[in-house]
Amino acid sequence: MSDATYRVMLRMQIIPGMGPDFERIWRKVGDSVTSHPANRGQWLSRSEEEEDVYYIVSDWVDEASFRRFETSDRHVEHRRQLHPYRSGGSMVTMRIVAHLPGTGGAE
């Protein structure tokens, strides 16, 4: 992963009881993000401290590419599919300035 990676983190509050359906749809429509040539990967995490809260982390080659995706028809459709499960959310953007690889899982 390049130090120039542009990272987007979404915090999504999901309607109580809809978490499993949200996870299923997120997996189903995720390739609309990960198939974009500027996307470096995407992760879905469920909070262990806050009920019905998920975090989506998405890495991009640069901010300009992410911003073009953010306003694209492909992104609008992606959001449309996930929106019925949301009750709120927020977005934070950042640049990776350093990466120290760990040894976990290495033999």
TrEMBL record:
It comes from the Bacteria. Residues 6-94 form the ABM domain. Keywords: Monooxygenase, Oxidoreductase. It holds the Pfam family ABM. GO terms for molecular function: monooxygenase activity. This is Antibiotic biosynthesis monooxygenase family protein. It comes from Microtetraspora glauca.
